[in-house]
Specification:
Elements lengths: L7 E7 L3 E9 L6 E7 L2 E7 L4 E6 L2 H8 L15 H31 L8 H5 L1
Antiparallel strand pairs: 1-2, 1-5, 2-3, 3-4
Length: 128
């Protein structure tokens, strides 16, 4: 490793919508970027070429560790993200709120058109 080597924590976004995070530094392997990704028992080292990198965001260690943490939640392909009962309850609540707002709108519209907007002029007032 070179004397002027600087290690920094970063989030590295890769072409193809991939992302990794850890301590970054240049490597001795033909200019590849070395990323030491924190794992449970130490670090996993990954190397990336310049053409594979979309962006590098320098962040704090805490943020990089959070990005490096694997997301273990798995959602079945045909399952809804929200349970059906919860979706139906939210939809019913939205429909009730929509009806309530429509009734308020109707009342306000009725009040608006029932009031004369302009004074009622007689033809004599206009001629004078």
């Amino acid at each position: 490793m070179e004397e002027n080597q600087v290690d920094m924590w970063a989030v590295v976004e890769l072409m193809g919508h991939g992302r990794t995070a850890g301590v970054i530094r240049t490597s001795d392997l033909g200019g590849l970027l070395r990323v030491d990704v924190p794992v449970e028992d130490g670090y996993r080292t990954e190397y990336y070429g310049a053409a594979a990198i979309y962006s590098i965001k320098v962040v704090s260690e805490e943020i990089a560790r959070a990005y490096a943490r694997p997301d273990r939640s798995v959602i079945a392909f045909d399952e809804p993200i929200v349970p059906r009962a919860e979706y139906e309850a939210a939809l019913q609540q939205a429909r009730l709120e929509n009806r309530r707002l429509e009734r308020i709108n109707d009342v306000l519209r009725e009040r608006l058109v029932s009031m004369p907007a302009l004074p009622d002029f007689d033809d004599d007032d206009v001629a004078a």
